[in-house]
Specification:
alpha+beta, about 45% strand, four-stranded antiparallel β-sheet, flat, about 250 residues, single chain
Length: about 250
């Protein structure tokens, strides 16, 4: 037989045991033990066998589901030369010789302030171990933005084919790429570039994709590579396509 054990944290922090819909017992528990363990638990009901072992197991399960949180996590980002960084309501603006990048961090529960013109401070409060990984991620995003407005990002893609030569043409002043004769197909693959990204013709069977934002550049390169995905064939044998061969900066 099972009973419904209801834990009620009131002034007396008592257990109220219910069995077959009738109140059979009420006894006080150790308030100094219960309150620190589950302070946010106001009322919890679960069917359990009416014995000491089941009650002990229930308490152990409550303790195991408690998430350990860190009170505060702080990180600093040093601003490099020739770059100006401003923060307003978790919107970061980075200006440099190559242009300007803006990124919003409103989806992250953090405080971002400029403690000096050359240093940014990022504070996280009451974070779990999983949320703690966002600290270094925010710093990396800001550093990538600073690198983008100073050096820029450049991805090189190379055409690989066994028999049918792949023809890659640049259109709209580098805003779109057309791929023809892939595996001898008549279809023309048109790949638009993301905002702020330009495609250029390189050496033989090579094109370059460049821009200031690393996300837009990498996504544009991925669009080109995925447009030549081989379908309904063994990809170990049919290796034709346009692949990313090198990732570097525009200016060293």
């Amino acid at each position: 037989l099972t009973s419904m054990v209801t834990i009620s944290l009131g002034f007396d922090a008592s257990f109220v045991l219910w069995r077959r819909g009738f109140q059979v017992a009420t006894f006080s528990c150790l308030k100094e033990v219960l309150s620190p363990c589950v302070p946010a638990l106001s009322c919890y009901s679960v069917p359990l066998p009416l014995n000491f072992t089941s009650i002990h197991a229930f308490f152990c399960s409550c303790l195991q589901t408690t998430i350990m949180r860190q009170i505060q996590a702080t990180a600093f980002v040093d601003i490099i030369d020739d770059v100006t960084v401003t923060v307003s309501k978790k919107i970061v603006t980075v200006k440099g010789p190559r242009g300007q990048l803006v990124r919003s961090f409103k989806h992250i529960q953090a405080e971002m302030v400029m403690v000096s013109p050359k240093k940014m401070r990022i504070d996280f409060w009451w974070v779990s171990r999983k949320e703690l990984s966002s600290v270094r991620t925010c710093c990396s995003h800001v550093k990538n933005m600073m690198t983008g407005v100073t050096k820029g990002y450049l991805y090189k893609l190379k055409s690989v084919y066994a028999h049918f030569p792949i023809n890659v043409n640049i259109h709209d002043k580098g805003k779109s790429v057309e791929i023809r004769n892939f595996l001898g197909e008549k279809i023309i693959r048109k790949v638009p570039m993301y905002e702020g990204v330009t495609a250029k013709a390189g050496e033989k069977d090579e094109i370059t994709v460049e821009g200031n934002c690393i996300e837009m550049v990498s996504l544009s390169a991925a669009r080109i590579q995925q447009s030549t995905t081989v379908k309904n064939k063994d990809i170990r044998k049919f290796l034709d396509g346009v692949y990313v061969s090198e990732k570097t900066n525009i200016t060293e």
